[in-house]
Design a protein that fits this description.
Largest sheet: 9 strands, mixed
Distance between the termini: 37 Å
Number of domains: 1
Strand order of the largest sheet: 1-4-7-10-13-18-21-24-23
Number of helices: 1
Shape: globular
Helix content: under 10%
Structural class: mainly beta
């Protein structure tokens, strides 16, 4: 995406109280960032009422030269998102419980995570809106409540999960999260049954490169 005169590095912000459907390829040139905010709490209609999803159609690709932020009540990532070495952030439009992988009521499946590509950090559970004017006025951070995960195989992704409550395995069997990249879990309460490995344990509720009993394999 560029301006009519061909200038690159254009940032794109889309906010709505409803759904955002990406049904064509979308490319942001240069360092252009992308912010898609469905079910926006700043909308004058349907604000954060739990009905606005972000849907990327199968076979369609979002390519960003800068960071990508997705905020919505639900997500249908059938197409692909590629952000190179830039960060990708995915958060809910209203704070609530968040299920991932095959966990009951999952908002993002393992297949959808496979469709997301970045060598930067993929943050799930915390995102900041673009405010009432799309440029940051009255912007608000939204942090998920309790997060449950199950059977997520994330390859080499660097993943951060953020919860204002607990982070736990959905069924306490098998592996909940597997990545050869960096895994950081930050919560306001307990994180599974924690068994920290190595010097990366930073505080009771924050750990990177850690092994959690029945929760994560890294």
């Amino acid at each position: 995406m560029a301006t009519a005169t061909g200038s690159s590095n254009v940032n794109l912000v889309m906010q709505t109280g409803g759904a955002i459907n990406v049904n064509a390829n979308l490319t942001l040139d240069g360092t252009g960032t992308l912010h898609l905010e469905a079910d926006s709490p700043h909308s004058s209609s349907g604000a954060a009422d739990g009905t606005g999803a972000i849907n990327i159609a199968s076979g369609k690709t979002i390519t960003a030269g800068g960071a990508v932020t997705l905020i919505g009540a639900d997500f249908g990532i059938s197409g692909s998102i590629s952000a190179g070495s830039n960060n990708i952030t995915i958060g809910q439009s209203a704070a609530g419980t968040l299920a991932l992988g095959t966990a009951s009521g999952s908002l993002l499946s393992d297949t959808e995570f496979d469709n997301i590509s970045t060598t930067g950090t993929l943050t799930i559970g915390q995102a900041t809106t673009k405010g009432s004017d799309g440029a940051g006025a009255s912007a608000s951070p939204i942090i998920s409540g309790a997060i449950t995960v199950d059977e997520l195989t994330l390859g080499a992704k660097n993943v951060t999960l953020v919860s204002s409550s607990t982070i736990n395995d959905d069924d306490d069997t098998g592996t909940a999260i597997a990545t050869t990249g960096t895994l950081t879990l930050t919560s306001g309460a307990a994180i599974g049954t924690r068994s920290a490995r190595g010097p990366s344990s930073r505080s009771p509720n924050r750990c990177a490169h850690c092994r959690f009993a029945a929760l994560a394999s890294v």
